[in-house]
Amino acid sequence: MQILQQFAGINGVLYYTPQILEQAGVGILLSRLGLSSVSASLLVSSVIFTLQLPCILVAMRLMDVSGRRSLLLSTIPLLIASLLLLVLVNMVDFGAVAHAALSTVSVVVYMCCFVMGFGPIPSIICSEIFPTRVRGKCIAACSVTAWLCSIVVAFTLPLMQRAVGLSGVCGAYAFVCLVSLGFIFFLVPETKGAVMPP
């Protein structure tokens, strides 16, 4: 799950949100305020990161109410949809304002849904699924895997963006999210309230 989580592209999107939004033309949305496109993309990035906090609070409540697995199964399709919308707006000419608005909405939905489901839940499941006698080593292995994959994503996103464009990158991340959805549906158990062996 940690590998799929990272290859869903979150750290690439997090690190490069201002550049992605600037490329999407978000400056057009705030041009009446006299902001440059760089300033507008930084401002919108700040708003997006601020919107994540209430989503985290909602996720904390929903994890114990609806369960980890069901929260993943309900948020990952939204990740897929937001990434596919980014692919669409980068392939079809909707006009500058619509392109900027749809791209911004897609990034907001992607980030907010990620912090509600695929962001925290793999780490929680890792801490709940392993037997107590090996839990520490298994959690350490999961953390190392997540960080290594995060580094790969952070360094490959600019290369992929130059090679296949933003729509190609988002399409690849959407494919990983689709694989993740199948993996979780078929292989990941619900750990809410489960008692794991010692």
Automatic annotation (TrEMBL):
Residues 1-192 form the Major facilitator superfamily (MFS) profile domain. It is a multi-pass membrane protein. PROSITE patterns: MFS. Keywords: Membrane, Transmembrane, Transmembrane helix, Transport. Its main location: membrane. The keyword Membrane applies. It is found in: Membrane. The keyword Transport applies. This is Monosaccharide-sensing protein. It comes from Musa troglodytarum.
